[in-house]
Amino acid sequence: MVHSGAPKHTKVITMVKDELTRRRALQTLGATGTLGLTGISGCVGLGGSGGSGGDGGTITIGELNPLSGQASVYGQPEHQGLMVGVEDRGEFEVDGSTYSFEVTSTDDQCTNQEGVNIIRRYTQQEGIRFIAGSLCSNVNQAVASIVDQENVLQFIHGSWAQALSYGRDNVFRNSYTGAQTDPAFVELAQSEGWDKVAMIGDEKHPSILDSHERLAEALPEAGIEVEVIWYERGQEDYSTQVQRASSFEPDALEVAGYTGDVYSAISQAIDLGMDVPIVELSNSSEGAIRGAVDDISKYEGVMPLGAALSPAIAESGHEPGENFVDKVQDEFGSDVPWHVGGAHYDMVFALSTAMQNAGTVEDIDAIREELLNLTIDEALSDAPIGGPAQLYTPVPEERLYDDHGQSWFPSLLRQWQDGDLNVIDTVELSSVPAYPESLTE
Q1: How far apart are alpha carbons 437 and 247 in whole angstroms?
Q2: What are the pLDDT digits (tens) for 21-52?
Q3: Which in 72, 90, 222, 422 has the greatest CB count within 10 A?
Q4: CATH 3.40.50.2300 corresponds to the domain 8-21+178-308+411-440
Q5: pLDDT tens digits, residue range 379-431?
Q6: Per-residue pLDDT tens over the stretch 226-283
Q7: Is the distance from CB of 441 to CB of 341 less than 8 angstroms?
Q8: Residue 229 contacts residue 245 (beta carbons within 8 Å)
Q9: Contact at 8 Å (CB) between 328 and 336?
Q10: Exposed (0-12), middle (13-18) or buried (19+): which is 190, by Cβ within 10 Å?
């Protein structure tokens, strides 16, 4: 517990609201075996080399993610989760033939042109029909017309912007959007009795733009005044933003964006004497945060709020999530900052199950329809880690995806306490409420 008399931003929240509950999964770990991932597989076309005795061959998943640069803190874990998922999935049977997945992966550097070049190569030259990534919202916006035109299935994880999947038939997302975390923040603000909130966000981040625009409407509707302040990604001096936030005299400060930017801004807010609760919406893992700061004790009491992604769900008692983290950690090293790697892991099992149900690995429309009908249990009950790597909130009929190809998540409220990042509580979507009409129509 935090010592009494600490600054307000170190306040320990033990309960957000009476209705908030912590979900714990009861799945047990299945047989796993040793991973043999040594690198990135070469590209093998759909159906591979064929073969006798019902051997259908290999199915290529084309990955594009930022594997270098600032965003690689998210891109590398996505890649690792994908590779572990492909290894765990192994061979599977579709319509009497045996298939397996292989991966060809390319660094998109989180830049639009690289993303466009990669998608064109994958779809128009190499005939790849299944795309994993990118986590970068700007890249997904840039490649959207190509993905739609070529009629391939794309799984985007990490991109927060709601519009990237909604209204598009062939895009699926096993990760949260800002629209899912926003209601949880409003819930938190109301439960804590905050009358005024200052928000500092990345002006170039599409999902943060969307999120802060929504919160600028939702908070006042809840009787909470709000001041929206923007910063430029990668800037070093946040004093102007902090001073503007401080002059608003808020009851709480919210900071959103990439991990390094968020914690630089929070550090300067603390240095400049902002003595209020601080919530951050980078949705970063503990490893990513520790890697971005020099002294974690400075951030005592800061509260990360985000979706129930690995490894946060492991901390909240979700055993398959813990098993996933352990497995990836064993394969890739102890210092890897987990984030949305579990999304790619779960996607591999969902895609293969949809192919089995459709009886085809080639009919994109049939596979898409089966994806939309998948239940969480059907898609992931056979995963060697014991269930889904992530903690989902089932959509109607216990499905993994809603009608827009979007998965839904509760939000975890965590807090830095005595140098550890602890789960405070889980904000269930059913309490905020689940599936707002504006997001599901």
Answers
A1: 36
A2: 222 222 222 222 323 332 333 333 343 333 32
A3: 72
A4: yes
A5: 998 899 999 988 888 787 889 999 889 888 877 788 999 998 887 765 543 33
A6: 999 999 988 999 999 999 999 999 999 999 988 899 999 999 999 999 999 999 988 7
A7: no
A8: yes
A9: yes
A10: middle
Left (φ > 0), alpha (ψ -120 to 50) or beta: where does 47 sit? left
- pTM here is 0.73
Residue that has been written with the tokens 């014991």 in this structure: 386
Four-residue CA torsion sign, 64, 66, 68, 74: negative
Domain ranges in the chain are 8-21+178-308+411-440, 55-176+317-398
Report the alpha-carbon distance of residue 250 to residue 238 in Å, rounded: 17
- What is the arithmetic mean of pLDDT over 194-202? 97
Q: Which of 237, 240, 278 is nearest to 261 (CA)?
A: 237
Upper half-sphere CA count for residue 111 (Cβ side, 13 Å): 9
Q: Which option is the CATH number for 55-176+317-398: 3.40.50.2300, 3.40.50.300, 3.30.420.10, 3.90.1150.210? A: 3.40.50.2300
Q: Is the dihedral of CA 218, 219, 222, 225 positive or negative?
A: negative
- Same topology, domains 8-21+178-308+411-440 and 55-176+317-398? Answer is yes
Identity of the residue numbered 319: E
d(C-alpha 82, C-alpha 69), whole Å = 20
Sheet holding 420-427, edge to edge: 225-231, 196-202, 252-256, 278-280, 303-307, 411-417, 420-427
